[in-house]
Amino acid sequence: MSDELAEEVNFRLAESSDGQPVLDLLKVLQGESDTFLVDSDLDDITGEEEAQQINFINHSRTNLMAVAEYGSELIGIVTVDNIQESVGEVGVAVLAGYQGYSIGTNLMELAIDWAKDFSSLDQLMLTVFSNNKPAIHVYDKVGFHVTNTLVEDGREAVKMVLTISDKSKKD
After folding, report:
1. Cα within 13 Å of Cα(143), Cβ side
2. Is the pLDDT of residue 95 over 90?
């Protein structure tokens, strides 16, 4: 892999045709890492159901799903899920073989730009395990700050928040 990798990666909103590839990506990510938690059992979701969910997300101002694509392969994902009024929870993950090329940072910046320019959210938040220093570094670099420490899945985690200050909506 070359240093030009990041320049060859396409960052875009997920499309309904990505239903099965997104499920496949999530399954690989879940198997690669114990820091990536998925709420639902991925084996219970069909590609068609995921495609419908992506279509719903794309028509929302409070939810986002975007992907990083290298060639025809999805290699990373960022989601924003509306968890309470005007607050979205961010999740981001990149396949292990593609980490260290700023792909996670680019996905986070895409989510932040979406939140500022398009969403109706006032705040993004995320929870990350305290020992996941590379992820915490990325989140800190893009403007998140730690608000508190908690225990999740029996492990210490931190909650990080980014307030969307620039809500100058484009009409």
Report:
1. 13
2. yes
